[in-house]
Specification:
single chain, mainly alpha, 68% helix, 4% strand
Length: 97
């Protein structure tokens, strides 16, 4: 009987390291940088862009760190996303008082 490979539903063979989960680190990094830049330009881009990209960067950063794939970019994305989210919270709290 021929050997059958184990397949994951969305990513193909389960034993290959190039699964969709390996993209968590680079995606978190890009979103974290975008969130930090948007937070620096918050007067021009509004509150939604740094908030949304920051939340996504934090989510992908946590997923990348817990899956132990691309941990350094995941950590940088987590920090950058946190800066974006915290800057939005600081702006909202400063202007609501």
């Amino acid at each position: 009987m021929p050997k059958t490979e184990e397949y994951s539903m969305a990513t193909g063979p389960a034993d290959t390291p190039d699964t969709a989960a390996s993209a968590y680190g680079p995606v978190a990094l890009v979103l974290g940088i975008a969130s930090t830049v948007a937070a620096a330009l918050i007067a021009f881009v509004g509150l939604a862009i740094p908030l949304l990209t920051g939340i996504l960067a934090v989510t992908f950063g946590i997923l990348g760190i817990t899956r132990k794939l691309h941990r350094k970019p995941s950590l940088v994305g987590l920090i950058g996303g946190s800066v974006g989210v915290l800057s939005v919270v600081a702006v909202i709290s400063a202007f609501s008082a």
